[in-house]
From TrEMBL:
Pfam families: DUF3313 (PF11769). This is DUF3313 domain-containing protein. It comes from the Bacteria. It comes from Escherichia coli. The lineage of its organism: Bacteria, Pseudomonadati, Pseudomonadota, Gammaproteobacteria, Enterobacterales.
Length: 111
């Protein structure tokens, strides 16, 4: 499309961040023995790592060039085995696919 028609919206979006963090304690890890094991895993870098993706997007009215809606989303990808496991596209692919699906199914008339 080279020219926007009437009632057109322009979508502008970007992945603004990707990060990893050590998995938090699970409810069963508050037992003293499990707590020691979890603490040791965390200290030695063998704790499972969570992956997160951050996305920002906006829809802009093509006629006025003013934003109609802005969104910021965070999604969680697949866990990494430990902090020495490199993050790969496969770890966050599903999050990207889910966010793209959400964007195409967005309906401004629903509240």
């Amino acid at each position: 499309v080279t020219t926007a028609g009437p009632r057109s919206l322009i979508f502008r979006g970007a992945i603004t961040g990707v990060d990893t963090s050590k998995e938090g304690l699970q409810f069963y890890e508050v037992v003293p023995v499990a707590l020691v094991v979890a603490g040791t895993q965390m200290a030695t870098g063998h704790r499972t790592m969570d992956t997160r993706l951050y996305f920002e997007g906006e829809l802009i009215d093509a006629a006025t060039n003013k934003p109609v809606i802005k969104v910021v989303r965070q999604g969680e990808g697949k866990d990494l085995n430990n902090e020495s496991t490199p993050m790969a596209f496969e770890n966050i692919k599903q999050v990207i696919d889910d966010m793209a699906t959400d964007a195409t199914m967005f309906d401004v008339n629903k509240k």
